[in-house]
């Protein structure tokens, strides 16, 4: 991939560079518009995203940082579920114009972490920075123990990311495949949708495996190729 974005404490590099345009909004149009605005430096100072695994929270946070960088803004993506993190990773993040914090539920219940997040929230606000936080549930359902932090998390708009319907998932597969130079016919898409997980994250993982098999066999995907790629018969 190209150079990773501005980093302070962790050498985190993304396996690919997701974009906001690649996120098929489906029922999440308002949330995607809010993320796009905050990435460009407009919109709200603070946005909270929540939803089940596979609804694209991580994609949107990473894509927001990449978009911010393209607009010559300093941005930092921080996944709190990363093993071994300590609250010190939050120090000096107010130097960033956009901070995207993922998996907040991973540190809720730790007084040290909650105090550190509260401090970061205030420093970002005081310097006019922007913040996106994502978690698996709404801020008032996370069980945050520090009342001041719990209050801060309710300051901005909150968006629950909804899963895509089958038609949207099929469109996502077709469009993502086309960006990779793959031609997925309707019968191949139906085969995948009928036999494998349908959430966007799983579908993108499936597509990556199909792409590898297609390159290896030097042919466009067919149902037999997909079966070999996904069922380990290749």
Word description of this protein:
The protein is of the alpha/beta class. It has eight helices and five strands. The protein has a five-stranded parallel β-sheet with strand order 2-3-4-1-5, sandwiched between helices. Helix 3 links the parallel strand 3 and strand 4. The longest helix has 18 residues. The two termini are 27 Å apart.
What layout of secondary structure does this protein have?
Elements: H1 29-39, E1 46-50, H2 57-70, E2 75-79, E3 98-102, H3 111-126, E4 130-135, H4 147-152, E5 158-160, H5 166-179, H6 186-195, H7 200-217, H8 223-231
Parallel strand pairs: 1-4, 1-5, 2-3, 3-4
Helix pairs in contact: 1-2, 5-7, 7-8
Structure characteristics:
234 residues, 8 helices, elongated, alpha/beta, 5-stranded parallel β-sheet, 10% strand, single chain
Concise structural overview:
This protein has 234 residues and is α/β, with parallel strands linked by helices. It is 42% helix and 10% strand.
Class based on secondary structure composition and strand pairing: alpha/beta
- Could you list the spans in which at least 5 consecutive residues all have pLDDT below 50? 1-15
SSE sequence, one letter per element: HEHEEHEHEHHHH
Approximate strand percentage: 5-15%
Q: Report, as a whole number of angstroms, the end-to-end distance.
A: 27 Å
Largest sheet: 5 strands, parallel
* Principal-axes shape call: elongated
Radius of gyration equals: 19 Å
Number of strands: 5
Average pLDDT taken over every residue: 88
- The number of helical segments is 8
**Helical residues, percent:** 40-55%
Say what oligomer this is.
single chain
* Strands side by side in the biggest sheet: 2-3-4-1-5
